[in-house]
Design a protein that fits this description.
Blueprint (H helix, E strand, L loop, with lengths): L1 H20 L2 H11 L7 H25 L1 E8 L5 E9 L6 E8 L1 H5 L11 H18 L5 E5 L13 H23 L9 E5 L1 H9 L5 H7 L14 H19 L9 E2 L1 H8 L10 H4 L12 H27 L8 H26 L15
Parallel strand pairs: 1-4, 3-6, 4-5
Antiparallel strand pairs: 1-2, 2-3
InterPro entries: Mrs1/Cce1, RNaseH-like_sf, RNaseH_sf, Ydc2_cat
Protein name: Mitochondrial resolvase Ydc2 catalytic domain-containing protein
GO molecular function: crossed form four-way junction DNA binding; DNA endonuclease activity; flap-structured DNA binding; Y-form DNA binding
């Protein structure tokens, strides 16, 4: 036990040692692959990488001890609450999609005599309590709940709109309920999970920031159109990239392309086969098998939940790979190890660039510019 704890601490120390020796460009690449926040200088980047690495080390330990980990990613919303659950076994190269759904919280969790969720503390308490019970009792409990951080304002308003305030409250109370339920049931193997706040900017950066879009937009849209001038930081463009990326991943999982990043359960494989091969413009909504009570018929919430969950799996994969490198000489500094560390970060970026290029050809149509429908 002591040896294992020393090795865990040594891994984080070794990672920080090689981060100190690396240049800022390498640290920026590493932060991207691990899902860490970027920084304005090397010290801040190192601190951010260490913060994320501690979380990933805990997730790695769970995978090592149980030979599998599961992540349930949540995109919070009152009318469009989406979640996706993935597992990744030690003897499997690819993660497995287990669940993918979207629900209207007020329809499912408010008492029958109330029909709209207001800012009343009673409404928040009832909905989030019932939601917490649903996530921890009715669904299989994952190793990690990850909840997407919500923005404080709409992009066009200087004030905080009520629908956005509701979602912010939902996010905060749900995080607190999940965290405290685990604390109050300390020692229960069923409720031994992690709760993490997932930054949408880091997830979007991981999946979208290296996607070449300029030529595709110039080719597919009129020269003076708004679409042809969009930058990768545009919410409309990044939303379109993410939705098309999820479609790519689902097609690959079915074997319709040579690009396979996830595996499917037999149930999910059968469900997707009934929608995807026959319709080149298929909707994620249809793939998820949602009914009329599942909120607005839109794909971005489903895509975000899907990619948040998968991002944590890929960040863990990258952490395991870089951890193995920095521990080659038992965590001690070695120039050859530093060269391997630098090469890994460089080659990982090249591989991610190549992967993201696959989405470019799909940007023939873009999602509407309307903001998220919180209500």
């Amino acid at each position: 036990m002591v040896r294992r704890l020393l090795l865990e601490r040594n891994a984080l120390d070794a990672l920080d040692l090689y981060c100190r020796k690396a240049n800022a460009r390498t640290l920026k690449r590493l932060a991207l692959f691990l899902g860490a926040a970027q920084g304005t200088n090397k010290t801040i980047m190192r601190e951010n990488i260490q913060f994320q690495a501690r979380c990933l080390e805990e997730l790695r330990k769970r995978k090592q001890e149980n030979n599998v980990i599961s992540v349930l990613a949540i995109d919070a919303g009152i009318a469009n609450f989406a979640f996706a659950r993935f597992s990744w076994a030690s003897d499997q190269r690819l993660p497995l999609l287990l669940d993918w759904n979207k629900i209207q919280l007020k329809e499912k969790f408010l008492p029958e005599n109330r029909y709209s969720m207001t800012l009343s503390p009673r409404d928040t308490s009832d909905v989030v309590y019932n939601l917490t019970e649903y996530l921890t009792s009715e669904l299989p409990v994952p190793d990690m709940f990850t909840i997407e951080r919500q923005r404080a304002r709409s992009m066009s308003s200087k004030s905080i709109l009520e629908p956005i305030l509701k979602v912010n409250i939902l996010e905060q109370v749900l995080f607190s309920n999940l965290e405290n339920k685990m604390r109050f049931n300390h020692g229960s193997s069923k409720l031994n999970y992690m709760v993490e706040s997932s930054d949408p900017h880091r997830m979007t950066s991981y999946w979208c920031s290296l996607t070449p879009t300029k030529k595709a937009l110039s080719k597919n849209f009129p020269e003076d159109s708004e679409e042809s001038k969009l930058k990768i930081t545009s919410n409309r463009l990044s939303k379109s990239i993410k939705i098309n990326l999820v479609k790519r991943l689902l097609e690959g999982a079915l074997g319709l392309t040579d690009e396979k990043v996830i595996d499917l359960t037999p149930e999910w494989s059968q469900r997707l086969k009934s929608h995807i091969p026959r319709n080149p413009k298929f909707k994620l909504w249809d793939c998820a098998g949602l009914g009329p009570k599942a909120g607005a018929r839109k794909d971005d919430d489903l895509a975000d939940a899907f990619l948040h969950g998968l991002a944590w799996i890929e960040w863990l994969r990258a952490y395991e790979e870089v951890r193995e490198i920095v521990l080659k000489e038992k965590g001690k500094y070695d120039q050859d190890v530093l060269a391997d560390f630098n090469d890994y970060c460089k080659n990982k970026k090249l591989a991610l660039e190549k992967f993201q290029q696959g989405t470019t050809s799909r940007l023939t149509e873009l999602e509407p510019s309307d903001e998220d429908d919180y209500e």
